[in-house]
Amino acid sequence: MFYKDDRLALFIDGSNLYAAAKSLGFDIDYKLLRQEFERRGKLIRAYYYTALLENEDYSPIRPLVDWLHYNGYSMVTKPAREYTDSMGRRKVKGNMDVELVVNALELAPRLDHAVLFSGDGDFRPLVESLQRQGVRVSVVSTMRSQPPMIADELRRQADNFIELDALRDIIGRPPREPAPQQQSET
Predict the structure, then answer these.
(1) Beta strands in 30-177 (DSSP E)
(2) What residue stretches are annotated with the NYN domain (predicted)?
(3) Domain enclosing residue 62, as ranges
């Protein structure tokens, strides 16, 4: 499905890919991910989309965002919004779908192949539009989680579905162990 002279771009829905990999029990090594797709074609751009909590003193995703930025990824971020739902639970909202769609459609005339790292069915019309413009689209997500992380309509629309679990040995690393909690003395 990939050709050496393909001009390709990666569109990574950060929270969706993180959730898919976590459900499969591994972490993504983004250096290996980039190298793998550089090997598969001429990588024009690798976009990574994520919302950030701006008012937090420390965001656990900040080191990843900084590393990706310095290692060749085009970072697309925006502040996440916090709110309290009807049950009184703190929720965070930070949808990056529109930004991803706009970037993909702008870059389409310069691409042969787009690789979408998301299982979100809302991206089906984007995939269809890219295909009408002559761009082949691969979608990377998983069917091996419970429930599957890939929307059926997105998988069917894509030219190629890549099972994330099949990439585990190429782009994965074992999840980090949480730091041990110090025992309090009583």
Answers:
(1) 42-52, 74-79, 81-84, 90-93, 113-117, 136-141, 160-163, 172-173
(2) 7-165
(3) 7-79+90-171
